[in-house]
Amino acid sequence: MTGSHVGSHGGPRVVLGVAGGIAAYKACELLRGLTESGHAVTVVPTASALEFVGAPTWAALSGRPVVADVWSAVHEVPHVRIGREAELLVVAPATADLLAKAAHGLADDLLTNTLLTARCPVLMAPAMHTEMWEHPATRANVATLRERGVHVLDPDSGRLTGADTGRGRLPHPDAILEAARDLLLRGERGTDLAGRHVVVSAGGTREALDPVRFLGNRSSGRQGQALAVAALGRGARVTLVRAHVDRPTPAGVEVVEVDSTSDLRDAVLAAAADADAVVMAAAPADFTPASASATKIKKTDDASVPSLDLVQTPDVLRELGATRPGGRGQVVVGFAAETGGDGHDVLDLALDKLRRKGCDLLVLNDVGEGRVFGRPDTEAVVLAADGAEPAPVPAGVKGALAHVVWDEVVRRLPVDRPAS
Ligand code: CTP
Questions:
Q1: Ligand 1 within 6 A of CB of 280
Q2: In this predicted model, what pLDDT tens digit does every residue of 130-140 receive, in sequence order?
Q3: Is the Cβ atom of 282 under 6 angstroms away from ligand 1?
Q4: Where do the CATH 3.40.50.10300 domains begin and end in the chain?
Q5: Is 317 close to ligand 1, i.e. is its CB under 6 Å away?
Q6: CATH architecture of the domain formed by 13-183
């Protein structure tokens, strides 16, 4: 990499390598996601990838010419230039053949040459039949690549080409995009969470009124997902307890799906028992009907409306702060979404919440006037119970805030805590 280049889209320069598998068509969606989020993407398909999706498609979606072989534009020495200029190299799909070539340093086309000249982070998203993924040769190649610092995602399970199902599906393009963005945001941070287990909660819980209705909230779960992806990239084992998050599960994260605040409490406390840190990014409903109706509540002709008896749900963060299920050194982090108003200053409300909840860190999001919820961008202040100065985090993507949160967590993790 030659410094921090800015591409024509204003964002970092990304090389998208596409190997020859049927999942190549899904890389079109990934490409669109990368360009839409401002990355300047150069697509390098292999000859067999072009059998599946032609060069005009890659050129149109990337807005750049597509160079697929080492014999085009030889005077520019493309295999060296493309590799050197890249700030991130993503290979999707990475076939068994491509993984084998990369592991052994073979370089018989532009993509494999680029892999050898690139000095930037490399992300590979494999796709192949289950037997090929599980074959000892592929296992060994993946292990070699990971040892060298290549980020090889685990493939998804599900329907494969044809009628068969199993592990080997290309991870969802959004999951690859999240992992790619995270690699760019992570910078020099390395694997400072290696050997640690962290628990993240995400999304909004639902409290049933009857079999078809519920009380809920607008949380999208994006911040929690970004926290999970960021921690995974920094080497942690991650349990993501998520409630109604309409996004693909991040590859490599253990996901526990929950419905209500009570479910979320049980799942978080269970996972927290051996966790080094717990981050409560979820928006649990604060109230639940005193009793849910077993049948649909019917509208009556006399225009009367049912009255709702509500009771408070368990306060999970407060319980974590008070009991520290993972031991005294466990770091507990809360989020506070505040709108202020009624003469209350947002910062005062958050400082009060930090004390009441008994957590170590509280991330304050100002959500007044439609800010933050469901939006890719965020702006926050990280408050600490140990009296450290509040750390303002400038407006940016949720992944950037996620890394600042983990920076603060890492700073507070006891060094002598046994690895989980
Ligand atoms: N939280 C929780 N359990 C609840 C409600 C909230 O663990 N039943 C956690 C959230 O995940 C978040 C923090 O508490 O990390 C603050 O959430 P927020 O909704 O801002 O706080 P509330 O407890 O609802 O306080 P208030 O009603 O005063 O805003």
A1: yes
A2: 999 999 999 99
A3: yes
A4: 190-412
A5: yes
A6: 3-Layer(aba) Sandwich (3.40)
Please state, in angstroms and rounded to a whole number, the distance separating the CA atoms of residues 253 and 274. Answer: 16
Work out the burial of residue 392: count CB atoms within 10 Å of its CB; fewer than 13 is exposed, 13-18 middle, 19 or more buried: exposed
Query: Of 215, 353, 217, 201, nearest to 278 (Cα)?
Result: 201
Query: What residues are labeled active site?
Result: 217
Mean per-residue pLDDT over the chain, rounded = 91
Top CATH class of 190-412 equals alpha beta
How many whole angstroms from 310 Cα to the centroid of ligand 1?
Answer: 17
Task: Please answer whether residues 115 and 83 qualify as being in contact, where contact means their C-beta atoms are separated by less than 8 angstroms.
Answer: yes
**How does residue 373 score in pLDDT terms, banded at 50, 70 and 90?**
low
Q: What is the pLDDT of residues 37-67, one digit of tens each?
A: 899 999 999 999 999 999 999 999 999 999 8
Q: Buried b vs exposed e over 8-39: b needs ≥16 C-beta within 10 Å?
A: ebebbbbbbbbbbbbbbebbbbbbebbbeeeb
Q: How far apart are CA 22 and CA 18, in angstroms?
A: 11
Q: Looking at the predicted structure, is the pLDDT value of residue 8 above 80?
A: no
Residue with CA at minimum distance from ligand 1 atom 3: 315
Residue 159's pLDDT is: 82
State the DSSP H helix or E strand holding residue 361, giving kind and residue range, or none if neither. strand 361-366
Give the contacts of 283 (CB within 8 A, at least 6 positions apart). Answer: 203, 204, 205, 217, 218, 219, 337
Substitution site in 219, 269, 357, 401 for ligand 1 pocket (most atoms within 8 Å of beta carbon): 357
Nearest CA to ligand 1 atom 12: 335
Q: How confident is the model at residue 5 (pLDDT cuts 50, 70, 90)?
A: very low
The CATH 3.40.50.1950 portion of the chain extends over: 13-183
